[in-house]
Structures are given as structure tokens and as C-alpha cells.
Design goal:
Blueprint (H helix, E strand, L loop, with lengths): L1 H33 L8 E4 L4 E3 L4 H4 L5 E4 L2 H6 L3 E2 L15
Parallel strand pairs: 2-4
Antiparallel strand pairs: 1-2, 1-3
């Protein structure tokens, strides 16, 4: 009986630890998205991955290869780059607030 109680306690501790780590992970991901610019119209491409990103995208900050600047998403796509899904690089830009 004592071993069964320890097993249940161990599972409860494991579930609580997973809940804490999941919360820390989601907070980290949400913090990453706060730095992505939706008002800048240019895009930066990463030669290594073949993707283009919005300014401030955390995946671009981890890029190994040199970057190339494009004035629009369509210009990057014409060069053969694909859009980053994390920062929604192909999505519309929001107008700057006055």
C-alpha cells in the first residue's frame, strides 16, 4: 500500500512540474512575438534556411547565414524564399499609428 501512495505522489509531482514548465514555455513564446514588427514593410531573408522573416522575428535572430533585405514579401518570394510561419512574414502589414 505504501508503494502505491508513493507512485500516486510521484505522478502528482510530475504533472505539477509539467504544468509549470508548460507555462514557462508559453510565456517565452508570447514574449518572442512582442518584438516582431508588423509596421515595417521590408523583409529579411536567411540564406541558410531559405525563408524570409519580419524584422524582430526570433527565428531570424538565430540565423546562421547572412541575410538579404527585401522591400516586400513578394520580392522575397520572387527570389525563391518561402515565408516564415512563426512571424507570418507573408501576412499584411499594419499601418503605423500616428
Amino acid at each position: 500500500m505504501k508503494g502505491k501512495k508513493l507512485t500516486i505522489f510521484g505522478i502528482a509531482v510530475l504533472v505539477a512540474a509539467l504544468a509549470v514548465f508548460y507555462q514557462l514555455y508559453t510565456d517565452s513564446v508570447n514574449e518572442d512575438f512582442k518584438n516582431i514588427s508588423r509596421t515595417e514593410t521590408y523583409r529579411m531573408a536567411d540564406h541558410y534556411t531559405g525563408q524570409y522573416h519580419r524584422p524582430g522575428c526570433p527565428k531570424l535572430q538565430q540565423a546562421y547565414g547572412g541575410g538579404k533585405r527585401f522591400e516586400s514579401a513578394s520580392a522575397a518570394e520572387q527570389e525563391g524564399y518561402s515565408a516564415c510561419k512563426r512571424c507570418d512574414a507573408a501576412g499584411p502589414d499594419e499601418p503605423e499609428e500616428s
